[in-house]
Amino acid sequence: MRVRFSLGFKNIRSEALPVLLPIPTDRPGQRVRGVSLSFRPEQTQGVGDDLFSSYTLGPKQEVSVRGEARLEPVGKQKLAHLAELLEEAPEDSARMVSEWAKIRLEREGYLVRQAVGVLLDGRLHYWLEVWHEDAWLPLDPWAFLTLKRDPGALIALGVTDPAIYLGGHEGRRIHLGQPHESWEALELETSMEEGTTDLLLSAVRILALGSVALNLLNTPVPPLAGLAAYGCYLLLLALRQGRTLFKVFQRRPTRALEPLFFHAFALSCLFRPEPILGLIFLALFTYHRWPRHPI
Prior knowledge:
The protein has 295 residues and is of the alpha+beta class. It is built from seven helices and eleven strands. 31% of the residues are buried. The chain crosses the membrane at residues 223-239, 260-285. Keywords: Membrane, Transmembrane, Transmembrane helix.
């Protein structure tokens, strides 16, 4: 999968700030090309496997990193023996769960380092790398536990099996390296585009959901036009997420039915709204997100 990325780092403090900014580099499952910076750094230096550019950013000053990357899945679940240990982790953010797991693994004698990157939806994400069999292997405690609790939580990433994160990942993230303390004073804005497919899907989604919204606001849209837009949207969505949704259905049927009832209700709004479909969707949505006891 080829993606275009843009990472913007802004100094949110009122004084100048020296920072080390990460530059995406080639790694397992990641090949980077055409990286450019919005202005020349003071220095570029390598720290282990990571590459950083040093800047002194003035108040509210921003620097951006742009480029392209070819991404693919990584790993073969070589850390499956850590599954039981990770299930003791608290429910929290990816960053906090990773910090907990790092401390826990180090107590068990493992050599562990933190990793940070950006997911396809633009969110900053934290995970770990564990030294095993003479290599650093990715370990994503948060993603592993999230999928254990909800097989449909990461449909957008095309993943349903939590075991992939025990020594690998889904291949839909830009790995930046180890986090640096100077980032705490920075505001991060990211953009990740999966070629023309993402742009087309976004445009068709706006048309489809826009036609539904206009009908609900008593601004009628020709039913066939709305149906054509929504049909194209569902087709693109099926090509992107259909296989993953089927796997979710096999593991937890009600979770897979949730988005289907949403789309069924949306389609009914183009002709004659069926409130029962919307109520079923809301019931499933609430049920799947209701707080449960930890694993």
